[in-house]
Amino acid sequence: MTTTFETVSFTYESLLEAIQPASGGRPINDPATGQQIGLVAEPGVAELDDAIHAAHAAQRGWAARGHEERSELLTLAADAIEANAEALAQLLSREQGKPLNGPNARFEVGACSAWLRATASFTLDVETIVEENGTLAELFYRPLGVVGAIGPWNWPMMISVWQLAPALRMGNTVVIKPSSMTPLSVLALVEVINSILPADVLAVIPGGRDVGERLAAHEDIAKVMFTGSTAAGKAIIRSSADTVKRLTLELGGNDAGIVLPDADPDAIAEDLFWGAFINTGQTCAALKRLYVHEDIYEEVCEALTAVAKNMPMGIGLDENNVLGPLQNKAQFDVVARLVEAAKESGARVLLGGEPEVDQPGFFYPTTLIADIDNQNPLVIEEQFGPALPIIKYSSIDEAIKMANSLDVGLGASVWSSNKDSAREVAARIEAGTVWINKHGAVDPRVPFGGAKQSGYGLEFGVEGLKQLGAPQIING
Ligand code: NAD
After folding, report:
1. CA of 440 to the centre of ligand 1 (A)
2. Whose CA is nearest to atom 42 of ligand 1?
3. Atom of ligand 1 at shortest distance to CA of 410?
4. Model-wide pTM > 0.90
5. Do 202 and 263 share a domain, yes or no?
6. Which of 74, 354, 400, 437 is 20 to 30 A distant from 114 in Cα terms?
7. Per the domain annotation, does 224 fall within a domain?
8. 182-234 tens-digit pLDDT
């Protein structure tokens, strides 16, 4: 392909302007200040149907371009994101609340281009299954058609790219329904990507649950990529049943971390902190329950507290901050309720636990809770915020039993000075990914997906790419 593109160049203001509705719209407010940042149009089911119709009509032409040309366009889209990274990060920070710095808004925009580039680079070979006596059985992956993408509000840009990049690379067209909490971030991202893609290959239809339900039920949607809560995932399974849609479900988690007695508390404290508090705890595969051996329990509590109390939290646009507000009031209320339940049970507050009542924004302070029972609601429910329960254990078998006691299993981690013993423990944990001496580190080359009710299907890598294709055997 030799087409040249003039790279679009947005400021924060011009990017926001480009995605504002011509008239009307619902206000979107900054969760750190409560100030309105813009408006979002709220198309309904009829507009969704139109977008699916257009994506369906565009799909054959997109598929006909072939892998090489599509990969080239995805790489150019990554370039366009990089050229507009600061405008995208500013909007993401204002709408989602996450700070510009730390593993937050600029990091998320960087991940968007990194995932697009990696997805464009994978080799998808035809697989020869049998070749003998004049018979050749080969496995191909064909495009599915139109893929529907439904996403959450915690990493709205990055997760949209996780869904759209492999779908487009495989020759599908895509219609996205972003979370109604963070639609502007996804509209802005797609505005930039669509400066490169042909018309109707990628569309965004903001809307609420009715739009999501319609997308999951629509007869011209071949597959739904869904990331969100386990409850909504179950609803999507039901909505999609009549059309036997393919589904990739990345659902809720409540990840356990197990610190073995030979770990060095000071050496692991900062990585433990970020494993739990990345994006102010609003991360699917964040460390949400920490199990520490009794021999080093107090040292780990002290080391973690020392790190946590120095991490600045505040308005995302302040360059000093690395932690932000909760994205919405409902999430703030979940965290406040669970921490109250822990305090009422007599658990020990090491840090935080007392939100300021008279401040704008949904800020909940960084909270560490020790001496907590494994059945406490703060342990068994997904808190999805900056509050970490630390549970003491005395035998590895007990720790593994507690880690495996829930019906979800997205990620987990084992912390030890001896990687071999950590790997042995890791093999016994029921989770899609078990990290060693880190937590939540995702890589576009390494498949990622949940065990148990954290979902099914894989994302990332060649395995993830294949899940956006229809396997076809030609045998003769
Ligand atoms: P959510 O389930 O409330 O919403 C996610 C999306 O689904 C939104 O766009 C929403 O409008 C839509 N939706 C809700 N009900 C629907 C229905 N019946 N049919 C179709 N669409 C519907 O989740 P959230 O609150 O935005 O995100 C937080 C949750 O997402 C947490 O549980 C978190 O663990 C999970 N999550 C998982 C991953 C992962 O990779 N496994 C990543 C990020 C977040």
Report:
1. 18
2. 284
3. 41
4. yes
5. no
6. 437
7. yes
8. 999 999 999 999 999 999 999 999 999 999 999 999 999 999 999 999 999 99
